[in-house]
Design brief:
The protein is mainly α. The protein is built from 6 helices and 2 strands; from the N terminus they run H-H-E-H-H-E-H-H. The radius of gyration is 15 Å and the shape is globular.
């Protein structure tokens, strides 16, 4: 499966490490339930309680979305590929804000994720991007409901940006008025 150059730095150097790594099921596999961790992947260094759990779940969803965008971007070109790269950068920044709100470092993302379907061309890439964004919104909403202050505002902004990105991808990658990554 091709991966965009933007994501390549996150992948191990050998295929064996990729196969040995724990895989997480991407949140977009058909439900809005929490991403299911499998194998050895550990999501955080402390137990999840109260408002920490939604933050940890949102971070896990963003990690999976960044992985998906690496594959999505490899199947796009031009402005759409740049838009996928912008989405990765935005999700990385949002992840950092959520991690800061947790007050501790969250372990790195799994090396591989199971996508809910194949991404083989531009049309399937755009469809996958829309699905990924729609599946992130409930995670951001959960953070907004269970937090206050700057974290609540960041989560609301993240949900809005995810909705804008989903709208962009649903329109075959054409810009919508006021839409931002």
């Amino acid at each position: 499966m091709p991966v965009s150059p933007r994501l390549a730095h996150r992948l191990p150097l050998t295929g064996l490490s990729l196969l040995a790594a724990a895989a997480l099921t991407l949140a977009a596999c058909g439900s809005t339930d929490t991403p299911a961790a499998t194998g050895n992947a550990t999501r955080s260094t402390s137990s999840s309680t109260g408002s920490q759990e939604p933050l940890e779940q949102a971070i896990a969803g963003m990690d999976a979305a960044v992985y998906a965008y690496g594959i999505i971007g490899a199947n796009l070109s031009g402005a759409q590929q740049r838009r996928a790269e912008t989405a990765i950068a935005t999700l990385d920044r949002q992840r950092a804000v959520f991690e800061a709100a947790l007050g501790h470092t969250v372990n790195e993302a799994a090396v591989a994720y199971a996508l809910p379907g194949p991404v083989t061309d531009g049309a399937s890439a755009r469809s996958m991007a829309e699905l990924i964004e729609m599946k992130l919104i409930p995670y951001f909403d959960a953070v907004a409901r269970t937090s206050t202050g700057a974290t609540q505002r960041a989560a609301s902004t993240a949900a809005s940006k995810a909705a804008n990105r989903a709208q962009f991808w649903s329109a075959d990658g054409t810009a919508s008025p006021g839409a931002t990554a």
